[in-house]
Amino acid sequence: MIELRSRPWVLLSSLVALVVFVAFLIFPLDHEHSPVEYALEQPHSYKAPRQNVWAELTESEAADVNAFILKEFAHLDLKKHPKSARDNFIYIVETLKPNKTDAVSYLYDDGPSPPERWAKAAIAQNLEDGPYIIYYMVGPLPISKDSMILPLEYTFNSGRNYVPNPIQDFAAIQDFASAMAENVSDITQELLGATANRADPNDPHGLLAFPRGSRIETGGFTLWMQFYRPGMGSGARTLLPQGIYAKVDATSSDINDWSVGQFYYNGVVYEDAEEFRAALDDPDFERTPANLDGPWTDTEDFESHPAGRELPPPVSVQPYGPRYKLDRKERYVSWFGFEFYITTAQATGVSLFDIRFKGERVMYELGLQEAMAHYAGDDPMQGGLEFLDTFFGMGKNAFELVPGYDCPAYADYLDSEWHQAYQTHHTPNSICIFEYTADYLLSRHTAQYSVTVSRNTFLTVRSVSTVGNYDYTIDYIFYMDGTLEVKVRASGFIFGAFYTANNTKSEDEYGHRIHDALSSSMHDHVINFKADLDVAGPTNDMVRMAIEPMTSTYEWDQPEQPKRNTMHLVEYQVTEETGIDWPKNSGEFYLVYSSDKKNAWGERKGYRITSGTGMGSTPHLTIFNSTTLGDSARWAEHDLWVLQQKDTEPRSADPLNYFAPHDPIIDFTKMADHESLEHGAPDTSYDGDLVIYFNVGAHHVPHSGDVPNTLMHTSASSVMFVPHNFNDRDASRESVQGVRLQLQGKKSGGFAGEEADPNDDLKTRMGRRSKTLDKTKAKYFGATYDKGIKLPLEALEPNMEGYVSKEHGVTDLSYNGSAAGVWHREEAFGG
Ligand SMILES: *[C@@H]1O[C@H](CO)[C@@H](O)[C@H](O)[C@H]1NC(C)=O
Ligand SMILES: *[C@@H]1O[C@H](CO)[C@@H](O)[C@H](O)[C@H]1NC(C)=O
Ligand SMILES: *[C@@H]1O[C@H](CO)[C@@H](O)[C@H](O)[C@H]1NC(C)=O
Ligand SMILES: *[C@@H]1O[C@H](CO)[C@@H](O)[C@H](O)[C@H]1NC(C)=O
Ligand SMILES: *[C@@H]1O[C@H](CO)[C@@H](O)[C@H](O)[C@H]1NC(C)=O
Ligand SMILES: [Cu+2]
C-alpha cells in the first residue's frame, strides 16, 4: 500500500492552488524563470478549537469497554471467540454520540468541559426464546469505578433495546443451500449445464444458491433461494441469476427441521423437486435460454485502442498545497469560512458536526442514516428483494480510495476504524478531502468596458461505500458562498433479474432485457440523511414560500388595465412535524429561517433546501406501504421531513431494523407524528430547534448501458442547502479568485476598488484614468500562478506499481460479517 499522506510536491510558502491542465504543462519551461521547487510538507500545526466529542472510539477505548463488559457481565459467559449464534458475545462497540443538549454549552457557550463520553455496545445474547441482539450504553469513559452498563433504550422509540436475531446460523443456511443445490444437480445440469460444487464454492464452472435476504415474516422465516453463476473475475454475480428458484420453509429455529418446498422455473411453480424433475421429461416442457458468463460481464476492455486512448486525459493539480486547514487528530476542517468536525460510524459512514459558516452556526449534524434499495419483479427473488445497507455497514464497507482516481492525486486522506467482536478494524485512506476548481465559473460579467470572472473552487469530503454489488460515492461539498451539497453517485453492478424470454409473463413491466437472459430489474434507491439545521442558532422556523399565479389590480394600471395576471410570493408556515415532497414546477422554496436573527436588511437569516444537481428531482419510494419494508423505512415515503429535535430521536433508522421490518426498533412514523412546531408562546414547550431528514437516490431502471456497471455521471443525485438572506450579500466575493480585465484600451471604467468621484462626469473620469492607469494590466483578486511549475509525476499520476490494497472482505450481501454471521467471518480471519 502506498503512503498517501506525504505530498512532496507541496510548497508551503504560498496559499495558492488553482487547477491547471496537464496540457499547459507540456510547454518547455522558460529558463529565465526558474521553476518553483517543491518543499516537503511540514506537519500541520493547526488545532481545532474544541475536542471532537463525536469521534469514534479509539482502539484502546474499545478494548477497555470490551474488558469492562466482560467483567461486569461475567454471568453471560460472553465468548471471545464465538462459534455460533448460540454463544453470547459482544458484537460491536462504538461511540454513543452525546446528546445535543449536553454538547451545546461546550460548543457554543464556552462551557468548560465536554459532555460525558459514552460507548454503545451491541451484545449477541441468548434469551429463553432464542438469540437476540441487545443494545447497552457503557460509560462514562474512560472506564473508572463510576462507569456502568445500562440498557440503551432512550434512542429507540420502540421502547425496546433489543431485536431478535432470526438468522441463527448463517453458515448452516449456506450449507443447507449447497445441499439443496446438490440434490437437484441433475436438474441444473439439464437446464443450466452446471452443478453446484459444495467442495469449492468458488469453482468458476459451478453454481451457487443464495437466499433472498430480506423477507423475514413475523414469527417465521421463508427463504426463496435462487441459483447464480459465481462470476468470479469482476464480481459480476448479480448479473448472473439463473432462473431456478427454491422455496425453503425456515420457520423452525432448528435448521434440521427446515425443508425445501416449491421450485419455480420459467413462470411455472412446481410443488417440489420431484414434480419439477418429472416435468422435465414432458416433451412439452418449455425451456428458456441460459444466462451464461462471458466477456460481456468484464468491467475492462484492455484491447480497444480508439484514437486518443494513447494520451492520458487532463488532470487537476495543486502545486502550492491546500488552502483548507486540517486538524487530523480532531478531524476538524476549516476552509474559507466553513468549519466542521468529521466522524465515522460502522453503520452510517461519515457524518459532519458543528458546521459553521463565517463564525455563524449552520448545522449541528449532517449525516447519512440509511441507504435502501427496493426492487420489484415477477419472480420470487426480485419480487421481494430489498436492502437496508446500514445493516451491512456503510462505514464498515467504506474501503480504501484509489489515489488520483477516486480523489485527485493531491487529496488528503483520513483512515477509519471500527470495532467488532473484540477486534479493531482499520480501513486506511477511506475518506478524502480536497479542493477542486470546477470547469465553470462561480460568477462572471461582461460590462461595457470590462469583464470580470470568478473561479468556482469548492471543498469536497468524499467516501465510497461498496456494499456487495453497489458502490456509493458520498460527497459533502462546500461552496464559497456558504452553500452545502450532499451528493450520492452509484456505480458497481446492478442486481439483475433472470429474463425468461417468455412473452406470456409480465417481466417486461419490471425492466428491460439487457442480455440473453437478463432483465435490468427496476428498483428505487432512497438514501436518507439527517440535517440538524441551526440557522444562525438553534431556534428556527420552516416555511414554504410559494410562487403563485394571481390576478391583481394596481392603481397605476388604471384605467387601461383594470386587472393584471401576474404572480407573487405567499408564505406557508410548516406548523407541525410532517413529510413534504418537492413541489411541482419548482413552485415553492423550502426555507429554514432563524426565528430571531436578521440580516442588515431586516430579513430573516435563512437557508433554502432544494433538490440539487443530478438526474432531476430527488425521488422518494414509489411503493405505498411496501410489503417487504413494513415500518422499517417509512422515511422513504416523502422527499423531506421536518421534525422537532429530540435527544431521544437521534436517528431515523437503526441497522437492526433489517431484522424486524414489521416491528422495527426505530419506527420513523412515531418520530414524524405531527407534533406542533409552534414555539415562542409562553405555553409551548417546544424550543424551536428543528431537524430535517431528506432523501437522495433514483428510480433506477437500468438499461443496456448499465452493463457492466452503472455510471456515476448520471446516477448522481443531490440536495443542496443554499444561504437565503443568511448574509448581507454574496459571501463568496471575499474568497474567490479571479480577474477583472479591461475591454479595449481606450475606454476605461469600472475597475474594481476604484472610488469614482460623484462630481466627475464620465468624460473626466475616463480622462483621469487613462493618464494614471496601465490600461493593459489585468486586475487579479486572489493570487495567481505567475511562474512555470515543474511537477513530479506523482502530481499527475500516483505511482500504483506495488500498490496492494488491504484485504477488504467485501460482502456479497450475505450475512457474513453482519450480526448474524460474525462468528463465521471471525473464524475465517483467525479472530
Ligand atoms: C441523553 O438524554 C436522554 C434523555 O434525556 C437520557 O436518558 C440519556 O441518559 C442521555 N444520554 C447520555 C449519554 O447522557
Ligand atoms: C438432500 O437430499 C438428502 C437425501 O435425500 C436429504 O436427506 C436432505 O434433506 C436433502 N437436503 C436438502 C437441503 O434438500
Ligand atoms: C411462459 O410462461 C408460462 C407461465 O407464465 C408457462 O406456462 C409457459 O410454458 C412459458 N412459455 C414458454 C414458451 O416458455
Ligand atoms: C397504507 O397504510 C395505511 C395504514 O394502514 C393506510 O391508511 C393507507 O391508506 C395505506 N396506503 C395505501 C396507498 O395503501
Ligand atoms: C462467509 O464467510 C466464510 C468465511 O470467510 C466463507 O467461507 C463463506 O464462503 C462465506 N459465505 C458467503 C456466502 O459469502
Ligand atoms: Cu440501482
Describe this structure in words.
The chain is mainly β and 831 residues long. The chain has four domains: 59-152, Nuclear Transport Factor 2, Chain: A (Roll); 170-297, Roll (Nuclear Transport Factor 2, Chain: A), CATH 3.10.450.40; 325-437 and 454-732, Beta-galactosidase, Chain A, domain 5 (Distorted Sandwich), CATH 2.70.98.20; 738-781, no CATH class. It is 10% helix and 33% strand. The protein contains ten helices and 35 strands. The strands form four sheets. It has a 17-stranded antiparallel sheet that branches. Strands 11, 12, 13, 14, 15, 16, 25, 28, 31 and 32 form a ten-stranded antiparallel sheet that branches. The protein is globular and about 85 Å long. It binds 2-acetamido-2-deoxy-beta-D-glucopyranose (5 copies) and copper (II) ion. The site of one 2-acetamido-2-deoxy-beta-D-glucopyranose has 8 residues, from loops.
